[in-house]
Specification:
Layout (H helix, E strand, L loop, with lengths): L2 H16 L6 E5 L5 H9 L4 E4 L2 H12 L6 E4 L8 H7 L2 E5 L2 H14 L4 E5 L16 H11 L4 E5 L9 H13 L4 E3 L6 H6 L4 E4 L1 H4 L4
Parallel strand pairs: 1-2, 1-8, 2-3, 3-4, 4-5, 5-6, 6-7
The protein binds pyridoxal-5'-phosphate.
Length: 216
């Protein structure tokens, strides 16, 4: 068994142990790792992947998709409006929608191409000045813009808690906000805290280094 296959099966076992009553989707975060590493994860049965840069994903994934039509690719990093065309072409889920201008650009490109990847709104639960994401106080307005004004396929919410905080209250806040808006997808938790995220209601966890090793 490859190291990646072993890492995957260990993480999947931990996910199952943390969520015996429901299924949680593992988004395997392959940023900075090679197409060969992704191919090993695919061979081991993993189908859902996360990348944080459009250009990097564009270089790696189109070739891999050929053999795996059920591969599902998530964008988990910031999206500039000038990359929207590539992002819509490449990704099945865009997790980082965080401003009306981006929502509009996505809606325009969906209209133009007919391709409609699901979107999540990223919420800046820690209200960090440097971090992407909608301020929690602006979430209701952003949900209304995505749903009513631009008719986007809004599926859920995503967050990255401040590194120095206990993540649990951030996860709880995100799950509460998702329930309040009737949103099914709750993307939260990384290598260091995905079990806590599952306890707090994550439907998707984004795990990179615990599967692929340290980033190169
Ligand atoms: C890199 C990254 C992850 C995975 O982080 P690990 O600590 O390697 O598991 C998850 N989410 C986002 C948004 C990331 O950028």
């Amino acid at each position: 068994m490859s190291a990646i296959a072993a890492g995957l099966s260990a993480i999947l076992a931990r996910i199952r142990a943390a969520s015996p009553e429901r299924s949680v989707t593992l988004v395997a975060v392959s940023k900075t790792h090679s197409a060969e590493a992704v191919a090993q994860a695919l061979a081991a049965g993993q189908r859902v992947f996360g990348e944080n840069r459009v250009q990097e994903a564009k270089a790696k994934f189109p070739d891999l998709r050929g053999g795996y039509p059920d591969l599902e690719l998530h964008l988990i990093g910031p999206l500039q409006t000038n990359k929207v065309r590539d992002a819509i072409a490449l990704f099945d889920v865009i997790e980082t929608v965080d401003r009306p201008k981006l929502a509009r650009a996505l809606a325009d490109e969906m209209e133009r191409t007919g391709r409609r990847p699901r979107i999540l709104i990223q919420v800046n639960t820690g209200r960090e000045a440097q971090k992407a994401g909608v301020d929690p106080d602006q979430l209701d307005a952003m949900v209304a813009i995505c749903r009513n004004e631009y008719k986007l396929p809004l599926a859920g919410l995503m967050c990255i808690p401040p590194a120095e905080d206990d993540p649990a209250p951030h996860f709880r806040l995100l799950a509460d906000m998702a329930r309040r808006h009737g949103l099914d997808v709750i993307s939260m938790g990384m290598s260091g805290d995905f079990e806590t995220a599952i306890t707090e209601g994550a439907t998707h966890v984004r795990v990179g280094s615990a599967i692929f090793g340290h980033r190169v």
